[in-house]
Amino acid sequence: MGIFDSIGNFFGNIQQGFLAANEVRKIVFSDPQLFVYPVLALVIAAIAFAVIATIIIIASVGVGAASASVHVGFVTLVVGLFIAYVVAFYIVVYFTTAMLIAFKSYVKGKKLSVGQALAATNPYTTLLLEWSIFYSVISVLLQIVEILIEMALRRFGIIGNIISSIIVSVANISLWLAVLFALPVIIEEKTGPIQTIKKSATFIFHNFGNTFGGLIYADILQYVVAAVGVILMFLGGLAVLSTIPLALSSITLVEVVMFIILLVLMFFLALNPVGSVILLILFLIAYAVAPTHMTLLALSLLSIGIVVIWLGHLLQYVLFNVYRLVIYQYKTEGFLPKGFDKSVISKNIKYKSGQQSQPSSGGGGSGSGKSSDPFANDN
Questions:
Q1: What's this model's pTM, rounded to 2 decimal places?
Q2: Above 90 in pLDDT, residue 186?
Q3: Residues 6+ away with beta carbon under 8 Å from 150
C-alpha cells in the first residue's frame, strides 16, 4: 500500500467517523432529556466542591492554629481539597453514567426518567467511586511528576522548557487516550480501575484511526455553536461601544487592540463555569449602574452569547460520551441503536463475533451472552 493509499484511507476513516457521529447526533437530539444530566452534574458538583472546600479551609486554619504549625494546616488543606476534588469528579462521573444508561434504555424502547436512570446507576456506585479515586490519584501524581520534570529541565533554558513542554504534553495526551473509553468499559463490563484502564487503552490503541473522525465531530460542532456565541458577544461589545461618543478619527490602534483583548478575555472567562457566572453578574451590575452604556440590547447580546457558548459545551459533552458508548457496544457486542445506519460504521469498525453477544440492531444486543445492562430484558 502506497503513501497515497494510506492518506486516502485516513481521510476515508475520518469521513466514516463523521457519518457515524452524525447518526449518534440524530438519536441524541430525539431525546432532549439527555442534556439534563450534565447540567445537574455541573450544578451539584460545583455546590459540593464549594461547600467541602469552605469547610476544609476553615478546618485547616483551625488545625494549624491549634497545632501551632503552618505545615500541619497546609497538609490538612491539601488533603481536604483533594477530597473535595474527588467528590466533585465522582458526582460528574455518576451523572454521566446515568445519562449513558438512560440512552441505552431509550434506544431499546424504554424511556427512563432522571430518577429512574439515577436509580439504575446505583449498582455501579462502588465501581464509579473506585474509578474516581483512582483517576484523581493518577492525575495528581502526573501533575507532581510534570512539576518535577519542569524544575529539573529549567536549568537548560529555552531548550529545557521545550523538552519539558513536549514531555508534559505527551503524558497528558497519553492519559487522556488511555481513559477515553473508561466509562463504556465500566458500564458494559463492570470492571475495577486497573482492568478498566487496560481495556480502555487497548480499545483506543486498536481503534483510534477508525474512531478519530467521530471523536472530533463533537468538538467541531461545539466550535461552530461557540462561534455563534462569540459573534453575539462581539455585537454586544459593539453595542456598548456605540453608546460612547467617540469620533472614529480619535480612536487609536492601541484602543482597538485593547477592545479586542477585552473580548478575548471575556470569551475565555465564558468558557469557565465560574468565569461565566462572574461575567453575567458583572453585566447585570453594569446594567444597573450604567444603563446608558450597558443597554438592554447589549446586556441581552452578551448574556445570550455566553449561554450559546455553554450550549456548545453541553452538546459536545453529551455527543462525545454517547458516541464512545455506541462505538464500544458495536465493537464488543455488535449492537447498534434502532434507526442507526449500519453502513456508516461497519466499513471501518468491525464487530468481533463470538465475544459477549450476537450482533443486533435495536434488539437489545443480547444473544446468548450475558449483558450487564439492567434493562437488557425490557424490550
A1: 0.78
A2: yes
A3: 161, 164, 168
